[in-house]
Amino acid sequence: MTHPVHTPVIAADGGLIRFALADLLSASVPSMRIELTDASAAEPWLTRLVGTEASLTALSDGHVDLPAQPELARLALLLWARRWWPASPTLGIPSLDPALLDLEAAVATTAVEDVAEGLLDGFEASPGELFDAANGLFAAAGSVAEETRQLCTQLSAWFDRHDDLERADAAADLAARVAPGQRAYALAAGAGPSASAEGVLAEGRASVDWARVPPGVLDAADDTVTWRIVATRTAARLEVEVTGALDDASLTAVAAHDGEPFAEAALHLGSGGFAGTADLDEAGTGLAATSFNRIGLVVGAADPDVNGTTPEDRAEVISLVRAREALPPAARTLAERAVADEEF
């Protein structure tokens, strides 16, 4: 199965709407695929969206390929960016402000609801929930303050039409108050490990699997993790450092021997990135001393059921995102435009 990082999707009520990532990121989206999971739930919005003939085809075959609708493509792009955007100081890919992404996604969901009412019933986040998550707009607005005001005004009118008067007032208030500000994000790009090589039983480098960590927390580049197992007077200690921190989060690192975990270190954000240590028991010390070439390290969720990304997955996405620099401003998200003129 193609990894989710390559397959932007909208989880509609009773179906999935899929797009090709390369199409979305190049701003040229010729088609979309609708896959039904519950025909009875999907039928009302499906007919409104694609018409009777295409709806019958989808209901009969369980799926249908159709020309892409711009409202759906826009929402799919924003939802993908909220989860998978590969921010990386090392690679020159800037962080996108989550507040602006949430605001854009809120407006995009209202556009989809206007095109096909009911499509997003049971969706992962309603326009109101996305709007509620879009905090920090005053700092995020920067050079796109006027566009941010327009989005807030648009949301206010939509909430008002749907009798969500409390949020309508909140969006109107934001529209009146948003002003240019200095966008900032936490960056701790540290130097390499500082420990002496003396007493090292095992050491190595690793890459962060994007699927195992929260979005926007760590540099998306490969080989940012350094680990070592150092001998102590009584046993041994695992030491882990992860450079290129973009934000704080609760992270752990798990060392495994042939896939079997034997040590876990809590990671904490410091001036040089994330770092943590864990004392090893006698068995772990023995593994480090005799089987160091079979030891690996995972940062984030070590659950074997996680559908992880490969180096090839990550390289392809990074290449597609870098190519977006050549797109005209109108083809890029508001969050991208907000950082386009900043030094990175």
Provide a brief overview of the structure.
The chain has twelve helices and eleven strands.
Number of DSSP strand runs: 11
Gyration radius, in Å = 23 Å
With helices defined by DSSP (H or I, 4 residues minimum), what is the helix count? 12
Q: Flag low-confidence runs.
A: 181-197
- Largest sheet, strands/sense/barrel: 7 strands, antiparallel
Q: Name the structural class.
A: alpha+beta
> CA-to-CA gap between the ends?
35 Å
The outline comes out as globular
Supply database-style keywords.
344 residues, alpha+beta, 7-stranded antiparallel beta sheet, 4-stranded antiparallel beta sheet, 12 helices
Description:
This protein has helices at 21-25, 39-50, 52-61, 70-84, 98-115, 127-133, 137-141, 145-161, 165-177, 282-290, 311-323, 334-339, and strands spanning 9-12, 15-18, 31-36, 63-67, 200-206, 225-231, 236-242, 251-257, 260-270, 273-280, 295-299. It is an alpha+beta fold. The strands form two sheets. A seven-stranded antiparallel β-sheet has the order 5-6-7-10-9-8-11, covered by helices on one side. Strands 1-2-3-4 form a four-stranded antiparallel β-sheet. A hairpin with a 2-residue loop joins strand 1 and strand 2. The model is unreliable at 181-197 (pLDDT under 50).
